[in-house]
Amino acid sequence: MKLGWNVLNGGDEFALFMKRKFFSKKGIKIRFHKPSSIWKGIENALKEINPNSSWIIGNGETIDLWRDEWLNGRSIQQIFGLSEFQLENYTTKLSLIIQDGQWNMTSRFKDMLAAKGVNVLLLPSPNSEVEDARIWNPDPRGKFTIKSAFNEIRKKTRNKIGWSRLVLNKAVHPRVANNGWKLVQNCAATQEMVRTKGIHLASRCVVCQNVTEDLNHLLWSCPFTKQLWLWVASKFKTKSNFQSFHEAIYKVKQGSTKVKNMWSAAVLSGMKQVMHAAKTKAHMWDCTLDKAIMWGVTTHFGRAPCVKECEWFPPQGNIIKAWGWQLTTNYIAECEAIVCALELAISKGWLEVWVESDARAAVMAFVKDQVSWNVSARWTSCKRKFTYLLVSHTWRESNFAADTAAKRGTMLERDVSVIYDGRPPWLFNLEDNNHNTYCSIYKSIVSSGFSPSEIDVDLPQTFKSSSLTKPSILRFNS
């Protein structure tokens, strides 16, 4: 899949070569055969990449109007059910319906989309100043990674196989889980498996050296393996009378989730160690399995939280302080809240802004300029318009005004926003620089279009302008 993503978005020699060989001049994948040892695999990977990718719309010169997913993750081809044969001679780019950074669609086209449930007014505005960018939907930042691709493909299997959640969980090391998955699917290089391939050999278990070696014997029936399972089962106060993976994995039905996860990890680790002993052709007690029988469970306690005293300081001068509201605890919602606050500040002509949020992940995303792909284009457009932009993080304990607003916002209807000019009537307490709270504060700076001399990391000494004495405060809840 990594090669497929590189072919679609890369600019290196390999990507350009593959595009020229397997795509037409207009960017459409060929439908006839060309000899290649890797193209078939890349073509299959593209079937997984295309449904899980979408576009951040820039000037529209790269996006195919008909085939690419630019309508909130869907394409015109998908919405109207058009085949490749029907679109054979249609190669229009999205830039055709973009003019001066705005959508330029005909009324008939809008009505056709509305009939299919697509509201054109909810589409993100294009940004003609930048190029189009393909993003990977499973990743919050829109960056393609092997890890996110692996997890996305694995989700399909979780819905089909009931025991998958016991193998693919955080309690089991990924390497152990992968090996266990293969063993359950009978993917192991045993002597019996070699014989099924037409290779005749004398088969004998390398552990007990008594019977024919097959996977079921190695994992469950071998006398030495039974000793392992007897010891493991005794640690969990259960019996080792199981003869298969499905019987073993569901053996511990009672107890907490932690106990069940430990049992799953023990079963899968035991299976992995048994196969390791068989592959290395070593005697059972000469390999690492004998060390595993001597293991014990060690409890590691987390460090106690460190309580520190901190003070809240109001901004000085003509600085707008905006709290990003908390729609949910979701990272994407936090980023959305901050961008909406910035857009509202721009609409009111406020170009010096201080954004403070108690969502550290969202703050760090804006500091590193790695925001969620959902708001990436809007963030790029906003930050160029400010003369002064500061993003900082604080704990919820010292940001109780925004926390109160967030709790009020959870009671609003869907897609409803309430904006107050001034202090809301239900907000009785405000942050006071004469009152200390106890928490730990982390602050960061985002610079946008101004020199480093205008930025000082220490807060609140950053604000040294005294042209106006009364600060303006902007709060949101939704």
TrEMBL record:
Q: Name one GO molecular function term.
A: nucleic acid binding
Q: Which residues form the Reverse transcriptase zinc-binding domain?
A: 144-229
Q: Where is the RNase H type-1 domain?
A: 326-408
Supply the InterPro entries for this chain: RNase_H-like, RNase_H-like_dom_plant, RNaseH-like_sf, RNaseH_domain, RNaseH_sf, RVT-Znf
Q: Which Pfam families match?
A: RVT_3 (PF13456), zf-RVT (PF13966)
SUPFAM superfamilies to which the protein is assigned, alphabetical: Ribonuclease H-like
Q: Where are the transmembrane segments?
A: none
Name of the molecule in the record: Uncharacterized protein
Q: Which species is this UniProt entry from?
A: Coptis chinensis
